[in-house]
């Protein structure tokens, strides 16, 4: 029969605790890796959405600025419109197109802005600017009174 001393029982208990701690660390590490693996694609998609929304905001501000320039300068301001240097720097491959229509209410100018982004060439951002009919053009010529 073997007699155990108090020291042997403590050593066995310490060995069991160390084994359990290692197992807990492996489980915790695997849970951490699984959580990171599932949230990393969400983080990447979030960053892409942020950059897309920044580009869209720049494009909307550019269209608003061009619209104000047309409204202030009249129909002559439509000729020779180009995207600003800021838009060219921040929107890759930016392209501006204008379309003019004359109606009874006035002239309508449609500005379309597109850039190199998935789906943006097919669906550009658009802004319509209405230029009123000048009253001098519609008024009949005054007859001379004799």
Describe the structure.
- The chain is of the alpha+beta class.
- It has one domain.
- The chain contains three helices and three strands; from the N terminus they run ααβββα.
- The protein has a three-stranded antiparallel sheet with strand order 1-2-3, covered by helices on one side.
- A hairpin with a 3-residue loop joins β1 and β2.
- The longest helix is centred in the first third of the chain and has 68 residues.
- The radius of gyration is 35 Å and the shape is rod-shaped.
The number of distinct structural domains comes to 1
**Beta-strand percent range:** 15-25%
Order of helical and strand elements: HHEEEH
Q: Would you report the number of β strands?
A: 3
Give the overall average pLDDT: 82
Give the SSE layout.
Layout: H1 6-73, H2 85-90, E1 95-102, E2 106-114, E3 125-132, H3 135-138
Antiparallel strand pairs: 1-2, 2-3
Short descriptors:
single chain, 146 residues, alpha+beta, three-stranded antiparallel β-sheet, 3 helices, 53% helix, 17% strand
Please outline what is shown here.
The protein contains 3 helices and 3 strands; from the N terminus they run H-H-E-E-E-H. It is 53% helix and 17% strand.
């Amino acid at each position: 029969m073997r007699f155990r001393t108090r020291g042997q029982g403590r050593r066995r208990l310490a060995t069991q605790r160390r084994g359990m701690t290692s197992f807990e660390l492996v489980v915790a590490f695997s849970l951490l890796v699984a959580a990171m693996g599932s949230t990393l694609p969400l983080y990447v998609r979030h960053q892409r959405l942020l950059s897309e929304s920044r580009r869209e905001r720049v494009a909307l501000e550019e269209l608003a600025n061009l619209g104000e320039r047309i409204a202030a300068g009249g129909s002559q301001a439509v000729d020779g419109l180009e995207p600003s240097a800021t838009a060219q720097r921040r929107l890759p491959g930016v392209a501006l197109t204008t379309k003019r229509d004359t109606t009874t209410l006035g002239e309508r100018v449609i500005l379309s802005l597109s850039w190199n982004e998935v789906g943006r060439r097919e669906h550009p951002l658009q802004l319509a600017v209405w230029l009123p009919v000048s009253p001098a053009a519609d008024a009949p010529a005054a007859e001379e009174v004799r």
